[in-house]
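ugh ok so i messed up the first submission bc i forgot one of the chains. this is the corrected input, ALL of the components this time, i swear. 614 residues overall. if the numbers dont match what u have on ur side tell me asap before i send this to the collaborators (the ones from the other lab, u know who)
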Amino acid sequence: MTVVETAIVSGRIDRPVRQRGVIAAAFGLWRARIGAVIVVLLVGVAVFGPFLAPHGATEFVGPPNTNDVPGLLFGTDRLGQDVWSRFLLGGRTILVLAVVSTLIGLFVGMVIGLVAAYDRGRLDNVLMRAMDVVFAFPNLLLALVAVTTLGRRSWVIILIVAFTAVPRVARITRGAALGVVERDFIGAAEALGESRRHILGAEVLPNVAGPLLVEANLRLTYSIALIGALGFLGFGVGLNQPDWAQMINENRAALSTAPWGTLLPIFAIGLLTVGVGLIADGLGRAVAGIDRGRPS
Amino acid sequence: MGIAKFVVRRLLLGVLTLFIVSIVVFALTQALGDPVRAILGREAQPESVLAKREELGLTRPVLTQYWNWLTGLVTGDPGTSFTNGVPVLDVLGDRIWNSLFLMAISAAVSIPISIAVGTFAAARRDKAFDSASSAGSLVLASMPEFVTGLLLIVLLATNVWQIFPAVVRIRPSEPPWVQPSALVLPVLTLTLGVIPYVSRVMRASMIEVLESDYIEMARLKGLPERTVVWRHALPNAIGPALQVIAINIAYLAGGVIVVENIFNYPGIGLALRDAVTDVNVPVVQFIAMLIAAIYVIVNLLADVGTILVTPRLRTGLR
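and heres the new structure output, hopefully the right one now
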């Protein structure tokens, strides 16, 4: 965060950051390219997989937990359902939930960060202190507390995951925007009598787009991890629905005898988070070497 | 203002944080959500809902419930379990110590290793070890604990090699150190979650120190590079990394939730999963407050520690 701040203050990013430049620079790096290939591959599985699944999600195709049913690539799961089909069907939920919650968290955090930076007064203080409180709580714990009585409904999971993303996004946005709001063109816009919404949206926002883009990718990694952890603990959406994280939870008891029901989704979630993380790192280097703190 | 005043102010801030956390925890479980509906399901008869509500003491106004819960927490009586009426503290019992033990061991293993990795990488900047550790931490930093933990099981416990047990087989009443081999994989999982973050900041801090004048001086005096790095540079490089070290120790408090469930380790993380499954609200609330308290305390200690090891900040306190 401080690196970005100093980079902006020292005038290294003097003109509005052109996003395409950042993205192009990022994908000049091998890590970002590898990340992109991985992500495209897995998003492809999640999006097109359901059309390719040879069997239905809850179709019984053989005895439970076996590897050698003819015609099945990866055997059956604990209920005698086809592992490969459920794997192809199971990527959508986690991906959609993660992307939607990240976008919501990103938007709210961005608004709070921009408003706080522009205010620089008491409102700034109150908002940032409030964000600090959220940091005093592990994300997974918050999610577990929420699903206890609110239930494992999609909207509960989306809102809580979005909520956990807000403080960090707000902090990053504020940090990047602090150097922008003091510049002359903001004063000029104020003198022209532009509304606060216009100044923040049209003048400040484009100048913090770079750091926000990095943060968006980082947040997506942690959203996938958090939703995955919920599913792994048995609090995913819907019983026996095909879902990568839930597959791990359901099939891992048979890990030594019929490993594929656990291994395929582990590889998928692991690769997906690593892929998005690699892109984030590449973008971070392209923007200004953003420090990647511990997700809190 | 001296250090004492600073500590007092941070303490008060910590208490305030925990107070707000308590509101959030209570609101999520008992105000926004309805425990009775969650236990009985949506199709439950109104009479049985009312009876259950009476039984669990949920008929009083929400604010009264909150007040009773909060005063109970502060006086060491966090209520009784919904499922069997046993006091929450008895339900958890030794599990709290088991989890603290796992956290402590993991911190004791992971922090020194992370510091060593970061220092080593900085001392051999851009050499093979540096590149390898930075690539490794890039991958590990993104990977969720449940993925790391299960991959370790596949690799070291069940499918590839059978070196360590995949699950901890100790009763909650037994101390966790009766089966040391079962602790290896849980500790390793948490350690792999800490190393990327701490080693990265350690490397950056070390590089900065190694470029300073007094290190140049030490080198010119002809001291061996090893002495320069580990004796002269390291103590000064740890200070700036303390904050991140603390965040990662606090992370362990949350990390044990997943790790205990991967390895069936009898701690509060395992208890939390069961409590959420059973809608055992008092247990969930207590574990949430406990972990938040550990978080706040560790961060407080880190702030004080950072001040104590950084003379510039110590004198600058106002």
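quick check: Chain B touches chain A through 60 residues (CB under 8 Å). that seems consistent at least. The two ends of chain B are 5 Å apart (CA to CA).
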